[in-house]
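Supplementary Text 2. Reproducibility record for the structural model of the 619-residue chain.

All settings were left at their defaults, and a single model was retained for analysis rather than an ensemble. We include the record here because the model underlies the residue-level annotations in Supplementary Table 4.
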Amino acid sequence: MSAGYDFSGWATRYNVHCDDGRTLLPNAFKDDDGKTVPLVWAHSNEPERVLGKAVLHHCAEGMRADCVFNNTDAGKLGKELVTSGSITGLSIRANRLVHDGANVLRGKIRELSLVLSGANDGAYIDEVFAHGDDEDPVSNIYMCEAEFEPYRDEIEHESKNGEEEKKMADEKKPETKEKTVGDVLNDIESKLSEEEMNVVYGLIGTAAEGAEKDSDEGEEDGNMKHNAFEGGAQQSADILTHSDEMSIIELSKKVGSFKDALEIYREDNELTHDGAAPVGGFTQDTKKDGNISWLFPDYKDLKTGEPELITDDWSWQSKVLSKVHKLPFSRVRTGQVDIRKLDALRAKGYEKGKFKTYSGNFQLARRTTDPQTVYVKNALHKDDITDITDFDYVNYLYKIDRQMLINELATAILFGDGRDEDDENKIFPDHIRPIWTDDDLYTLKGTLDLAAAKEAIQGSDTSKHFSDNYILSEAFIEKLLYMREKFKGTGQPDLYITPHMINVMLLSRDLNGRRIYSSIEELRSALNVNSIITVEQMADQKRTKDGKTYQLDALVANLSDYAVGSTKGGEVVHHTQFDIHYNQELSLIETRVSGALTRPWSAIAIEEEVTSNDVNPVG
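Retained model, structure tokens:
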């Protein structure tokens, strides 16, 4: 040991089996030769418990340390304890561990601690330096009682006198065999009950699992949750360490009861006891000391990455936007002339010698539709973007915003956005014209008359033979097919309908109890439509006209007759901008479009008349 240091000793020894089950192989810490690390008390990370510093030296047998205390109150107290021989144990904190099973191949020493008892029996103070007598050590202090395997190489820091004294001390020690955990368990098994032994095995199994987990994490992120080579002192108030468990087992051999040993250890170490727990238990309250929640496995995500969205059925919305007719311009004008049943336009027969009369006039129906901007604006805080690492938070929010824009457009096309007329966020029906509430020239409207259908089907004494489902189903199909006679849309239309109304028709039965329609395909054929698309959101759609309230049951249309116009730059675009004032990423998704039916009588709306307080019977 060089002059200027207060004491010297073994920081750790190679080829010695530690209490935590690890064995340090030779040269495990050779890269730390000459490194200076903090000298602290019991692996504390509190500044007031830093006692001084230690200079590490690599030897064939292990790592030695020349230590000097600082001039703080803690340093002075530590020096007094070491000089008087009250403290003899050393312990290291290491990370960056590389394992081969239970053997440690490589690691980095981060600090050296004075401890009451070390996990490595080879870690002890063997030389206390008295300033003014640099060449002659005051004393040689050994921590452990077990005999160590002799080494061939001489330690460069020991003087010749020190070697002779150590040899004499070793010769006087009785031969002892180092006990394994199995040996200890065999010694105490006869003294404990079966229940107490189960507790012992549980503690040992949990400690082994925790040590392995910490080792793995040390390899991945370069740090450990707690020191693998910690001393007997408890590292923190809310952790029951492996050294604690071994101390409890040793104490149980003396008192003859594991339960009593656990209680004694709890009182001696001021561990918190939960009054609701059995004697010897520790609280699981994370706000108190002594919690053992780490003994239980952590919850794991069933699905990693982006959180799953809880939504209604959105499939119909993408179908709507894929079926509409897209125009490269946004200001749309349509014009039609109705020449049906106009007698004045009929061709006339001519009689010789008489004046040929002119045909009558006809009226032009014309309307224009202007575009409106529809948008979704959001803000993502920079701290959230940085902290959320399990998935791409920016892209996740963008996908949600884009889907909400698509949903709003599809809803506005079929039956309007539902906002009040004076709502500043309303998508106005003269810009994106809802099919349901469009002018009667474009959308045919029919109202179900359930009373008349019931009378026609049941007569005076047949109600016991026909269910309400059958009556509603027949009334709906009859109304739809009759209105198809007036339909002037392109080709075969699609049916947009509530899921409940579909179930009503599928569950309708004849007099013999057999279902009228056995499948969706059979029902589609009976309704004479191209496809059936269920729309959950249609169930709550109501409108008021002439003091009456109507509930929407279904829409029939070929959406190729519905034009959506947008100029270049008005298509769906995404803008982002960083706001340095509020440290957030601003996101805007918008489009500028117009929409309207372009053919007269190209859609059918089937409704029911209800009172304002009625519960929706088909929703």
